[in-house]
Amino acid sequence: MSAYTILITGAASGIGLGIAEHLGDLGHKLILADLNIDAARASAEKLKANGVAASAISLNVADMSQIARLDELTGGANIDVLINNAGIQHVSKLEDFPADKWQQLINVMLVGPAMLTQAVLPGMKQRNFGRIINVGSIHSLVASPFKSAYVAAKHGLLGFSKVLALETGEFNITTNTLCPSYVKTPLVEQQIAAQAKENNMSEQDVVNKIMLEPMPKKSFIGLDELAGTAAFLLTDAAKNITGQTMVLDGGWVAR
């Protein structure tokens, strides 16, 4: 497999960093983009200490002026692979959900990925190669109470991915969405506490009765599973897999 230049958003920790570590081990060049530049730089330094070509940039995917400067921020790098991973969560009943927070979740997880893709697409078309991987969620397919903005954004991401697959069919460009059920990341750890409060139950009950109950396999998805799936999508074997929903859910949606 060729070595690609890969831009990953929300890459300082969690799913983004897990994917970065695996792809770095495979010899790819990484650009870690994150709102927290100090954390992104620290992660990039750790990767470089292991022999990985990695750099870090500060990027707020909800800030269109920053996306407009993407070429400048990346030092004019040719982005071969874009992994739209940046995400946030807010757990609340709709009637208590702040309007600005609702908008923020849509901007970060739907508008941002679309505009970042718009920014890198001309170069991908010119080089006749591109891989766009959107990190969705089991909530791209099903819903849970108290997560209206998150579920709306992740459902929208699936539709966006399918449209882009149709628009880029004549090029060697693919667009797919990874849809894991719960992955044990800092974002999910925060959700456990918030869900416990909203549902008036213990955090352990949240894990067992809300997060893992719908899954026949009753286990969190590992970062290695997501990273391995992302790596597969970069191979020639996956060149005709586009507009697809890659579901890693322990059997959740088979019910």
CATH architecture of the largest domain: 3-Layer(aba) Sandwich
Structural class: alpha/beta
Main sheet makeup? 7 strands, parallel
How many distinct domains?
2
- Beta fraction of the residues? 15-25%
| Distance between the amino and carboxyl termini | 37 Å
Tell me the name of the CATH homologous superfamily of the largest domain.
Answer: NAD(P)-binding Rossmann-like Domain
- The level 1 CATH classification of the largest domain is Alpha Beta
Radius of gyration: 18 Å
Low-confidence stretches: none
Give the integer mean of the pLDDT values. Answer: 95
Keywords: Oxidoreductase
Organism: Neptunicella marina
Family: Belongs to the short-chain dehydrogenases/reductases (SDR) family.
Protein name: 3-hydroxybutyrate dehydrogenase
What does the secondary structure layout of this molecule look like, with pairings?
Elements: E1 5-9, H1 14-25, E2 29-34, H2 37-49, E3 54-58, H3 64-68, H4 70-73, E4 81-84, H5 99-127, E5 130-135, H6 148-167, E6 173-180, H7 186-199, H8 203-211, H9 223-233, E7 244-248
Parallel strand pairs: 1-2, 1-4, 2-3, 4-5, 5-6, 6-7
Write up this protein.
The protein folds into two domains: 5-180 and 221-247, NAD(P)-binding Rossmann-like Domain (Rossmann fold), CATH 3.40.50.720; 182-220, no CATH class. The chain is globular. Helices cover 46% and strands 15% of the residues. A seven-stranded parallel beta sheet has the order 3-2-1-4-5-6-7, with helices on both faces. It has helices spanning 14-25, 37-49, 64-68, 70-73, 99-127, 148-167, 186-199, 203-211, 223-233; strands spanning 5-9, 29-34, 54-58, 81-84, 130-135, 173-180, 244-248. Helix 5 (99-127) packs parallel to helix 6 (148-167) and helix 7 crosses helix 8 (203-211). The protein has 255 residues and is of the alpha/beta class. It starts with a strand and ends in a 7-residue tail after the last strand.
